[in-house]
Design brief:
heterotrimer, A mainly alpha, B alpha/beta, C mainly alpha, A: mainly alpha, two-stranded antiparallel ribbon, globular, disordered C terminus, B: alpha/beta, Rossmann fold, 2 domains, seven-stranded mixed beta sheet, five-stranded parallel beta sheet, 12 helices, 43% helix
Chain lengths: 288, 370, 290
């Protein structure tokens, strides 16, 4: 029995590390721009599907490169063509526009690739056994990739000039601007990073399971939950939040029907918002 | 007879959709999954129906009038099946409609057909519940009432006294699961755990873990192709080694293609029909002539039979009213030997069947003869 | 002709739905992105009651009340949240509700849905019943329209608009903001439930896949396109969107391309939302600033 729960936790940690990628991207955007980008989910889906497209002509490892590049372009495009003009117009306008944008992107994807499940087509391979717990090669890849990207982010934020600028802007946008920080560059960096992370995560999920057009939206809501858990705007909180969601989801299935697995993150969102809007790791960014 | 036909044609010509300029045609409707998750099957159904249609029209059509099938796409969902059938009934006023594929979609529309006295015929829907749909509802595909028995017998004959049961969360899966359970328990078997799994998910690992929890020697998994393939693959990756017993909806080369290595050794049941009959040979020849590089699709034979049987009934019917067509259907079906066997309708509009066993060996689907 | 009536019925159902959302979004500035949950609750509750044998009008009332109660229950805790967070919470709520419909097979028959929902007064579900049902929908839509107009012009309605513009000012003026918000969400959910019941008894079949984010986006589009916070806006929006949707079905698209219709529709809706926000966020019918 202990094996069963241990397996669930291992699955949870791996899934959670990918959610962490998504959550970090989402929270970066929120920290700097102060709004939740509904269309963030579609970057996840597009990253995966574009890789599918390119893997038709390139070996998989290489196909990832143009796919991620294009995903980043989409992410930057979101800002340039839609959000930038709306930043002064008020919350509701931005929100509706981002919902509209996510719908547009999602349906464009459906138009091109259909509504069906798709797959990268990797052969099934037996996993590796550690003390009665099975870990598949894919799971190892996922955890490793997530680790690498998050370490990269850590390095960026802590040790580079750009990282410092990001943190300054997240802390206080007006002051940062007054101090001469180039908002445009910071903005570009944020969108690039968030799109990159989303795309990578999407590819990982695609390798692990399958691709389907709603994959962006489902994972977006989980990313939300993680962001809220860690406190909106708090990058490391988002990371921990992602892990927490992954573990909670997988453990939860031991107690209730697998059909409600996704509901775990939704229920968490509601509960958090109602009772602890500043997140478990309580940070300044509160919510009335 | 002529005047009636002219009236029908005049009414048909009143609607304003493009492409529906009916001259002297007999039109039947078909709610078909041309898009959505069942589209891959829907294409096959259409091809089989077309083959039969051409043969009907080459043989003089319906008493001289060509027969035509008006397809409405249901996007593989129940909701769109409902709007499709409502469109066919209210706009085109068609008396005979070939129903949608999935049992849930079929069950969603049969009350509508029944209330409007429109004849609904199914060629792929297996749920036992359909038997109770009403006297305007028929199907050329056997009810799962019989398959559940067959699957339970299979499990018992393989020597499994205790299994885990999982089924896809829709009318087909739930219905078949219920029948299997009844029969298996009656034969003295034990169900270690039972749960449903949702359609269309990308990740079934929680379900696989739950199966594993009970450490069974065999699992009865009643599911569709994509879901089955994903489950098999993920089970394989997580090292689950058991005997899978599956149903007719999983019997497809596509499943084997998607699941690869993980599909080896599955055993399942399916409604069989002999491939040695003259009807089958004729069908095969005709298919290969018309579609030389396409495999015969799953349920293709049933669709073919459905069109031919309907044409026969339409020819014999006293008029194009649904009541007359209905009694004609009953009459012409008695003893009608189609490609898929005896298509005599019983009082409920159901047909009988013989159930055989299939397995996957070396990447191919074969009959299972231990 | 019959098909035209069919489109009218669906348009009227969405008119009621859009009017109900308009009360929350348009008058009060509440971003309720989970409004479809109440549409669904109303539809399921009404269907279940009527399948148990209760007369249809009674079931519709029951559906409405269940939805309204659910709305009030959600509102009390959720309305303490600020704007976009309320939006996310309601979105999550709608998904939880949908999963409930999907998983609680003993109650809702899960993904199989509820077929054979009866029509009121024994109206048959075929062609002959159509014009009667249409008449019913016109009555209901007109009643809801007049009711919402009344609210808009009442002191209650004016207070709501103050809340929308600036909550703090409203509070300073002595209004109990939370109570106002809860009341309007309850009313909005009530009418959304009514729209859901109308829908269920018309189509005669409902399933969890009828109540997804898709439907939220469509009704949002109706309100936003037509004109938020106005009386006629949601009506106009609902008719425009629904007619567009059904019109697409009649275009002679070759069978091979049938599958592109739905995504194309979706792209248009998304694109229109974006363009609206960029160019004309107030929608077609502008609000009177009197």
């Amino acid at each position: 029995m202990a094996e069963y729960y241990a397996q669930l936790i291992v699955n949870g940690v791996v899934a959670g590390s990918v959610y962490a990628l998504f959550a970090v991207g989402l929270t970066l955007v929120y920290g700097v721009f102060r709004f939740i980008n509904f269309a963030h989910g579609e970057l996840i889906a597009w990253g995966a599907y574009l890789t599918l497209l390119f893997s038709g002509v390139l070996p998989f490892g290489l196909a990832v490169v143009p796919a991620l590049f294009l995903t980043v372009l989409i992410g930057i495009g979101q800002d340039r063509y839609v959000y930038r003009s709306l930043r002064r117009r008020g919350r509701i306008t931005l929100l509706i526009a981002s919902i509209g944008l996510s719908y547009l992107l999602r349906n464009t994807l459906r138009l091109i690739w259909g509504s069906d499940l798709a797959s990268f087509g990797f052969e099934a391979r037996r996993g590796i056994s550690f003390f009665g717990i099975i870990v598949t090669r894919t799971q190892l890849t996922m955890a490793a990739a997530a680790l690498i990207f998050l370490a990269f982010l850590y390095g960026l934020l802590k040790f580079t000039m750009m990282g410092k600028r990001l943190r300054a802007v997240a802390d206080n946008m007006e002051l940062a601007e007054i101090m001469g920080i180039d908002m445009k560059k910071v903005g570009m960096t944020v969108w690039t990073l968030s799109a990159l992370f989303a795309g990578v995560g999407g590819i990982l999920i695609g390798i692990d399971t399958n691709l389907e057009p709603m994959m962006g939206l489902t994972n977006l809501l989980k990313a939300f939950a993680a962001v809220l858990l860690g406190g909106a705007g708090n990058v490391w909180g988002a990371l921990l939040g992602g892990l927490f969601i992954g573990i909670a989801e997988n453990l939860g299935v031991a107690f209730f029907s697998p059909g409600y697995k996704d509901a775990v993150s939704f229920a968490l969102i509601i509960l958090l918002l109602l009772f602890r809007p500043t997140g478990l790791f309580g940070l300044a960014r509160g919510v009335r | 007879m002529r005047t009636r036909l002219f009236c029908v044609i005049w009414i048909l010509s009143l609607f304003f959709t493009a492409g529906a300029k009916a001259e002297n045609e007999i039109v039947v409707g078909s709610v078909t999954p041309l898009s959505g998750k069942l589209a891959v099957y829907g294409e096959g159904f259409q091809q089989a129906m077309l083959l039969a249609l051409e043969e009907v029209n080459a043989g003089g059509g319906i008493n001289g009038k060509p027969m035509k099938i008006l397809y409405e796409d249901n996007n593989s969902t129940a909701k769109d099946s409902v709007s499709a059938i409502q469109k066919l009934i209210t706009v085109h006023k068609i008396p005979v409609i070939f129903g949608p594929a999935a049992s849930s979609n079929f069950l969603a529309v049969c009350p509508i057909a029944q209330e409007n006295k429109t004849i609904l015929i199914g060629a792929e829907s297996a749920a036992a519940e359909i038997t109770k749909c009403g006297d305007y509802v028929f199907r050329v595909f056997p009810s799962d009432e019989l398959q559940g028995k067959g699957a339970a017998e299979l499990a018992a004959s393989l020597g499994y006294k205790a299994v885990v049961l999982t089924y896809i969360n829709n009318d087909w899966g739930v219905g078949l699961g219920k029948v299997f359970k009844e029969n298996f328990l009656k034969a003295g078997g034990k169900i270690l755990d039972e749960f449903s799994h949702d359609e269309g998910k990308t990740d079934y690992r929680s379900e696989i873990l739950r199966i594993r929890k009970n450490a069974p020697k065999a699992a009865v998994n009643l599911t569709y192709i994509k879901e089955g393939a994903t489950m098999l693959k993920q089970a394989y990756e997580t090292g689950l080694k058991i005997q899978w017993i599956m149903g007719s909806a999983s019997k497809s080369p596509k499943l084997v293609e998607l699941a690869g290595e993980a599909a080896e050794g599955i055993i399942g049941t399916y409604p069989t029909f002999s491939q040695d009959t003259p009807q089958y040979k004729h069908f095969r020849q005709a298919w290969e002539k018309k579609y030389p590089d396409k495999k015969i699709p799953i349920f293709g034979e049933y669709n073919y039979d459905m069109v031919h049987l309907t044409a026969k009934a339409l020819k014999a019917a006293k008029s194009m009213s649904s009541d007359d067509i209905r009694s004609a259907l009953f009459t012409v079906s008695q003893g009608y030997m189609g490609v898929t066997g005896d298509k005599s309708f019983d009082a409920n509009g159901d047909v009988g069947a013989v159930y055989g066993k299939w397995t996957v060996k070396a990447g191919k689907i074969e009959d299972y003869n231990p | 002709m019959d098909y035209f009536f069919h489109i009218l019925v669906v348009a009227l159902v969405y008119t009621v739905f859009a009017l109900s959302l308009n009360m929350e979004l348009g008058y009060t500035g509440l971003y309720n992105f989970g409004h479809v949950a109440f549409f669904g609750i109303g539809a399921y509750a009404s269907a279940l009651f009527s399948l148990l044998g209760f007369p249809v009008f009674f079931s519709m009332m029951a559906g409405m009340i269940t939805a309204g109660a659910a709305g009030a229950l959600l509102a009390v805790p959720a309305l303490r949240l600020s704007g976009d967070y309320f939006g996310i919470a309601t979105l999550a709520f709608a998904e939880v509700v949908r999963l409930f419909f999907l998983n609680e097979r003993w109650l809702t028959k899960g993904p199989m849905g509820l077929p054979g929902i009866p029509r009121p007064l024994g109206i048959p579900s075929g062609v002959s019943g159509l014009s009667v049902y249409l008449f019913l929908c016109v009555l209901v839509a007109a009643a809801v329209f007049l009711f919402t107009r009344r609210i808009a012009r009442s002191p209650f309605g004016r207070a709501l608009k103050v809340v929308r513009e600036d909550e703090y000012v409203a509070q300073a003026l002595g209004k109990n903001v939370l109570s106002l918000k809860v009341r309007i969400v309850a009313v909005g959910s009530l009418f959304a439930g009514l729209a859901g019941a109308l829908y269920g008894h018309y189509i005669t079949y409902i399933s969890p896949s009828d109540f997804t984010l898709n439907e939220t986006i469509i009704v949002l589009l109706c309100v936003v396109l037509g004109g938020r916070g106005t009386d006629w806006g949601p009506v106009l929006g609902a008719f425009l969107v629904l007619f567009f949707q059904e019109f697409i079905r009649f275009l002679p698209i070759p069978v091979d391309f049938g599958r592109v219709v739905a995504p194309l529709q979706g792209m248009v809706y998304g694109g229109v939302l974006i363009l609206l926000m960029l160019r004309r966020p107030e929608g077609i019918v502008p609000e009177h600033r009197s």
